[in-house]
């Protein structure tokens, strides 16, 4: 009987130890698999986001091209015809000349608008001359009698990857637009600096600020800011919002100047 | 001595202990009080075997409450409660003032194994613990399962093992085995109290 007790106890002990080892091993294995799965999901999500942004850029490019090549051309042809019509009307019906001139000026305005929209959709300056020039142009375009936009930049800016250039440009565009439209800012400073850790882009304004939590809660209002976060997510960048209602905002973007995993193609129009 | 060390460690790390570990510490303090009474009774040559039975009740209550607080799901809690109710019924049936209640102690071991297996199942299905090897309740369960497996047959066949004091000195052998496994379990509890401190700090660092 004592032997049976000894054997039974030994068997139970072996089983207990086996169960403990099995649980520890199996749990660790499951955790590792979960981590791998999470990594894959994250990679997939980033890929999807990159593809969406890429599709967005393609679409902008297509619309810009259509505006420039088709509507722009049609408007130019229309202007030519109107000029011819204007000459005919000048001789036969001098009373309608004013109307032709008015139509011509409206047409000129439309052609200028189409060109502007087309240029805004595709940042050609960015592709041809780089980020600094594109930001200079952006600052110049945004500045008017009421708003003053200034660019402060490092003397030596490295050549960045096209995807990085485009992301930073689009973010700056969004932030300036927000500062003018929603914060009623009068002075905006775009600060672009190269650091050992990467590139730092700051957009500082003297507007009325905003409540970040409230904006992010509202799905309709927080779209622009979420878009910024999505763009940065693809290139492993970070955004810091130093904002508060009633005072100017400071938004800092930090990105690494490394070759990212997912690249967005940038095509010339 | 190991019991005292485990209590000391528990008290030192009391701030870091979670609810289940605090209940286990309370259980150890009660066990220690019972041990002191046992020593006192033995010194005055009074019968102290009933204290083994009472200690079993204290251990089982401590375990039941600890696992009740740790295992959150309704199904697990009902299993913990059922196990405890079964044990109490067996304890009431088998309790004796003059003998070790072998069946009750045996059932206690079986239910301890059940609790440990239930906990293992819980951690394998929930998958919330990143590093199991520094998770204190895992070691508590591992210690409990080894302790219970090592002493189960000793108590189930209590008449053969601890029943007769004059049977070729086997009583001393088996009581030493029981004490060794108890010491091992207290040692594991000591380690788990320290691990809980570490776990607390790691979790704190992650959430800040």
Structure characterization notes:
The complex is a heterodimer of chains A (269) and B (208). With 269 residues, chain A is of the alpha+beta class. Chain A has helices at 2-92, 97-121, 124-129, 131-142, 162-181, 212-217, 223-234, and strands at residues 148-153, 187-195, 198-205, 238-242, 250-255. In chain A, strand 4 and strand 5 (250-255) form a beta hairpin. Chain B has 208 residues and is mainly alpha-helical. Chain B has one domain (2-203). Chain B is 80% helix and 0% strand. Chain B is built from 8 helices and no strands. Chains A and B meet through helix 1 of A and helix 5 and helix 6 of B. Chain A: This is histidine kinase. Chain A: Residues 62-259 form the Histidine kinase domain. Chain A: The chain crosses the membrane at residues 6-26.
Task: Determine the number of helices of chain B (DSSP H or I, runs of at least 4 residues).
Answer: 8
Distance between the ends of chain B: 38 Å
Low-confidence stretches of chain A: 260-269
Q: Could you give the order of strands across the largest sheet of chain A?
A: 1-2-3-5-4
Structural class from helices and strands of chain B? Answer: mainly alpha
CATH fold-level name of the largest domain in chain A: Heat Shock Protein 90
Largest sheet of chain B, in brief, is: none
What is the distance, rounded to the nearest whole angstrom, between the alpha carbons of the first and last residues of chain A?
A: 92 Å
Helix coverage percent of chain B: over 70%
Structural class of the helix and strand makeup of chain A? Answer: alpha+beta
**Considering the protein shown, what is the CATH homologous superfamily of the largest domain in chain A?**
Histidine kinase-like ATPase, C-terminal domain
Shape by Cα distribution of chain B: globular
* Topology of chain B as a string of helices (H) and strands (E): HHHHHHHH
Radius of gyration of chain B: 18 Å
Which CATH architecture of the largest domain in chain A would you pick?
A: 2-Layer Sandwich
Largest interface: A-B, 20 and 24 residues
Number of strands of chain B: 0
Q: Shape of chain A, please?
A: elongated
Series of H and E elements of chain A: HHHHEHEEHHEE
Low-confidence spans of chain B: pLDDT under 50, at least 5 residues? none
């Amino acid at each position: 009987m004592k032997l049976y007790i000894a054997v039974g106890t030994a068997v139970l002990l072996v089983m207990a130890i086996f169960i403990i080892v099995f649980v520890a091993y199996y749990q660790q294995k499951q955790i590792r698999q979960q981590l791998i799965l999470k990594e894959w999901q994250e990679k997939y999500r980033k890929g999807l986001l990159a593809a969406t942004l890429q599709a967005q850029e393609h679409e902008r490019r297509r619309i810009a091209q259509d505006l420039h090549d088709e509507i722009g051309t049609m408007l130019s042809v229309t202007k030519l015809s109107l000029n011819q019509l204007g000459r005919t009307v000048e001789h036969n019906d001098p009373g309608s000349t004013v109307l032709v001139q008015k139509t011509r000026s409206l047409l000129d305005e439309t052609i200028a608008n189409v060109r502007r929209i087309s240029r805004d959709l595709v940042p050609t300056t960015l592709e041809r001359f780089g980020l600094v020039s594109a930001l200079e142009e952006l600052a110049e375009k945004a500045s008017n009698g009421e708003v003053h936009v200034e660019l402060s930049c490092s003397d030596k800016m490295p050549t960045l990857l096209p995807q990085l250039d485009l992301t930073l440009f689009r973010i700056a565009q969004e932030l300036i637009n927000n500062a003018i439209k929603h914060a009623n800012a009068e002075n905006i400073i775009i600060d672009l600096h190269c650091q050992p850790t990467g590139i730092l882009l700051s957009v500082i304004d003297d507007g009325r600020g905003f409540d970040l939590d409230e904006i992010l809660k509202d799905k309709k209002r927080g779209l622009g800011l979420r878009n910024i976060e999505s763009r940065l997510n693809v290139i492993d960048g970070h955004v810091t919002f130093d904002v508060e209602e009633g005072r100017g905002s400071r938004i800092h973007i930090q990105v690494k100047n490394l070759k990212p995993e997912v690249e967005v193609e940038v095509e010339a129009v | 001595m190991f019991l005292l060390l485990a209590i000391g460690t528990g008290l030192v790390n009391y701030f870091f202990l979670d609810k289940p570990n605090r209940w286990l510490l309370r259980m150890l303090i009660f066990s220690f009080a019972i041990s002191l009474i046992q020593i006192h009774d033995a010194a005055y040559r009074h019968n102290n075997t009933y204290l083994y039975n009472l200690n079993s009740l204290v251990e089982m209550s401590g375990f039941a409450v600890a696992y009740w607080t740790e295992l959150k799901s309704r199904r697990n809690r009902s299993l913990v409660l059922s196990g405890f109710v079964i044990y109490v019924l067996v304890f009431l049936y088998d309790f004796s003032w003059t003998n070790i209640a072998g069946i009750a102690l045996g059932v206690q071991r079986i239910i301890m194994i059940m609790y440990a297996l239930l906990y293992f199942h819980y951690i394998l299905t929930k998958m919330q613990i990143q590093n199991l090897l520094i998770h204190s309740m895992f070691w508590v369960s591992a210690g409990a399962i080894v302790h219970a497996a090592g002493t189960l047959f000793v108590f189930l066949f209590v008449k053969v093992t601890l029943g007769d004091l004059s049977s070729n000195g086997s009583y001393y052998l088996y009581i030493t085995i029981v004490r060794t496994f108890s010491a091992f379990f207290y040692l594991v509890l000591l380690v788990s109290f320290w691990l809980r401190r570490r776990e607390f700090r790691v979790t704190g660092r992650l959430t800040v």
